[in-house]
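User: Quick sanity check before I run a bigger batch. Here is a single chain. Can you write out its predicted 3D structure?
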Amino acid sequence: MSNTETISETQEIIQDNLDYTLFSWSKQKGIAPIAVKYAKGVYLYDHDGKRYIDFSSGLMNVNIGHGNQRITQAVMEQMQQVSYVTPSCVTKVRGELGKKLASVTPAGLNKTLFTVCGASAIENAIKLARLYTGRYKIIARYRAFHGASYGAMTAGGDPRKLASDSQQVPNVVHVEDPYCYRCPWGKEITSCSRECVSHIERVIEFEGPGNIAAIIMEGESGTSGCIKYPPDYLQKVRALCDKYNILLIADEVMSGFGRTGKWFGVDYHGVVPDIIATAKGLTAGYLPLGALIVSDAIAEHFNDRMLWLGLTYSAHPVSCAAALETLKIYEDENLLENAATMGHYIDEQVAKLKLKHPSIGDFRNTGLLGCIELVKNRTTKEPMAPYNAKPEEMVIMNKVAAKLKELGLYTFVRWNYIFLAPPLSITKEEVDEGLAIISEAIAIADEFVN
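Assistant: Done. Predicted structure follows.
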């Protein structure tokens, strides 16, 4: 096929998508999506043969890397047996996956309700917390994203919900974040009194402890800027939950399954939640699947009580087969260990970039869940683009994003953040390749430092 024909084919593919499909979180005109033909390892390839290194693992979900044919084989074999049964029936793979999850979750969380995705896991976590406790209020953080369905969207504080905010779910109360780089209380982490925690306790007292069913926290912060918790933050939040008999829900949709270098983000904090809601890395994005994993106490509560939760595609056999094989790949290929090792390597290399680029204000990272925050001035911390930036405020960062794409790197650039979350299979050489591109793009932002 000639180059002209290839380009023509590419344009036709893009145009069909623009003409007949809608794009998430975007104006529908003026977008220029990558027409992905195939993907392998940490790379995407378009129909013109251009290669992009994927530094966000798709949507922070393709943890095992692209194109692993072990998943293809597992899915095919399951479909040859049975593709779907109602959730009231069981399959061998459903039980095997549940058993495997129980072996990697924090102690005492042994039963799973399978959902369709992360948002449906969060929705059901909120419903379950209310059913179990008989209470109705949920405490959540402002700088968090829990999904795009109404309940999950309301629980998150992400501004993507604002367009639909008039119909938000009632009885969700938000608290400030432990955003140490931009502390809401103007404190330093080395000398503060954890005002971020005492603030939550005041909100509990204001709202009435007997009304609060759960506090929901990300295992590790993701799309809000990879905000690093103070070392004892989640432990103190757990203590508040215990003090007031409130459930702790850990949103491990993004931070679960090796993304942080451990099975779950909470594992870094020595905290055992009552409920884990997860998805993404459960199947590494190869098929949709979510999971709601609960404590033994919660599971036993429903032995003689109705569990008023259900989904048509709960425990879908084919998705379960993909998940079970994905979990085996994490272990067989030592991906958790590699995520931790490569995370430390990225920390070292970005520290060098910070010496070179005055626009790098902060870098926050756990394993392979990281974010570079760009600023116009390190002293004042004036962001290169503000929180919830308007289009006209994104001019500089849009230039940075365009340069990344031009140079063959795919990742998320949001406000003044550049995300670093490559597949857990990444090598040092591939890290170097990606960081070299990021460095060249950040040079654009350096020109606007004052």
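Residues 335-356 form the longest helix (22 residues).

User: Great, the batch can go ahead then.
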